[in-house]
């Protein structure tokens, strides 16, 4: 059974957003990392790049597949998780602890388009 954390926002493409003030930490869900298998590379945007809700901002590659990352929200990248450059498998250890990018949110109302934990559980059938 996948780990799902209350209080986060979830997208249908299996990304999450943890909101802290005007910032959002974006990563892939525990379900997504289980489906992907052993993550070997995380492609991330650069700091100061803009991300747009519903559009890709990078990719996660595993021994099984490569998967585009779709941003659940719009904003400007203020930080990338540099630890993933050297150790992409951290995503497999704890997908929620090891976020991929931190963005300054440009439109808080976009969060209304995302799912809460209960809706995400229903989506993945748990």
Rg of Cα set: 13 Å
Instruction: List SSEs in N-to-C order.
Output: EEEHEEEEEHHEH
So what's the CATH class? Answer: Mainly Beta
**Proportion of residues in helical segments:** 10-25%
Question: What CATH architecture label applies?
Answer: Beta Barrel
What is the overall pLDDT average? Answer: 97
Shape: globular
Distance between the termini: 7 Å
* Percent of residues in beta strands: 25-35%
Biggest sheet details: 6 strands, antiparallel
Fill in the CATH topology.
OB fold (Dihydrolipoamide Acetyltransferase, E2P)
- Runs in which pLDDT lies below 50 for 5 or more consecutive residues are none
Structural description of this entry:
- This protein is of the alpha+beta class and 126 residues long.
- The chain has one domain: OB fold (Dihydrolipoamide Acetyltransferase, E2P), CATH 2.40.50.
- Helices cover 17% and strands 35% of the residues.
- It contains 4 helices and 9 strands; from the N terminus they run E-E-E-H-E-E-E-E-E-H-H-E-H.
- The longest helix is centred in the first third of the chain and has 7 residues, at 30-36.
- It is globular.
- The termini are close together.
Summarize the structure.
The chain is an alpha+beta fold and 126 residues long.
């Amino acid at each position: 059974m996948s780990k799902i954390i209350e209080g986060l926002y979830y997208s249908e493409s299996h990304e999450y957003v943890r909101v802290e003030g005007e910032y959002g930490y974006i990563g892939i869900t525990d379900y997504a990392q289980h489906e992907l298998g052993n993550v070997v590379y995380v492609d991330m945007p650069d700091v100061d790049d803009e991300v747009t809700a519903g559009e890709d901002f990078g990719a996660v590659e595993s021994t099984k597949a490569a998967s585009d990352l779709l941003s659940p929200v719009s904003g400007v990248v203020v930080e990338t998780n540099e630890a993933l450059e050297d150790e992409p498998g951290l995503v497999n250890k704890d997908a929620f602890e090891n976020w991929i990018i931190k963005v300054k949110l440009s439109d808080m109302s976009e969060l209304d388009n995302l799912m809460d934990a209960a809706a995400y559980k229903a989506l993945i059938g748990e």
